[in-house]
Amino acid sequence: MNIAVLIKQVPVSNDVSVDPETHALVRASSEGMINPADLNAIEEAMQLKEQTDGKVVVFTMGPPDAEKALRDAMALGCDESCLITDRAVAGGDTVATAKVLAKAIQLYGEFDLILGGALSADGATGQVAAMVAEELNLPHVVEIQSVKYKEDQAGKVEVVKKMHDTSFRIACATPAVLSVNFGCNEPRLATLRSKRAAKSKPLVTYTNAELGFAAEEVGIKGSPTVTVDSFQPETKKSAKMLTGTPAELAKQLYDLIEEEKGK
């Protein structure tokens, strides 16, 4: 089974700068790491690879230094990687990003599954995986807990999706796109040997010259949504001690709730 994994490099800390014109994160200005939920997606991919052979190829879009995230992913066992980097595709929203990722996957080869983290630690939109599926016209299941390959069900995988306290088992035809929940498994750790091996594993770089998009199709120009501002929300907390009989406490609590509702 050949598996593509979509990863994103996110800031290590909240100490990041924001472009004053586009209001987007300046990713080149801060240290990056693999988005936590994407590590869970890599782990699911590696478990499937161990069951079925095949290979795992990891994709990311970002500045040139996003190569580090790809090398880190290959140190976890991924076989190959692909970096999409070009000023023409930078700053795009989820729609433009999904378009670029889908085209890169098509250029690279055929895959039985495409996995990605359900949410990113910075944007947390939860949209990209489903949008990639739409671009590729593939079935998709979002926010899954696990995926299993069934030898007796050729061309299908079984995924587990939780909604509130209920788990659903879904048979999904392949090829398909799946987004993996954060914390659904225990991601493996890289070893010194695997880190050394990752340095020599294949890494392909695509620019817009290979992708072939017009300037108005991708990046900021190709984004139907625009970030108009970014700010740190103010948080105000207060506490009020209530005393009295149960009936008096209930009345005081009711009055406080009505007062807050009227603000």
Automatic annotation (TrEMBL):
It comes from the Bacteria. Residues 22-215 form the Electron transfer flavoprotein alpha/beta-subunit N-terminal domain. InterPro entries: ETF_a/b_N (IPR014730), ETF_b (IPR012255), ETF_beta_N (IPR033948), Rossmann-like_a/b/a_fold (IPR014729). SUPFAM superfamilies: Adenine nucleotide alpha hydrolases-like. GO terms for molecular function: electron transfer activity. This is Electron transfer flavoprotein small subunit. It comes from Dorea formicigenerans.
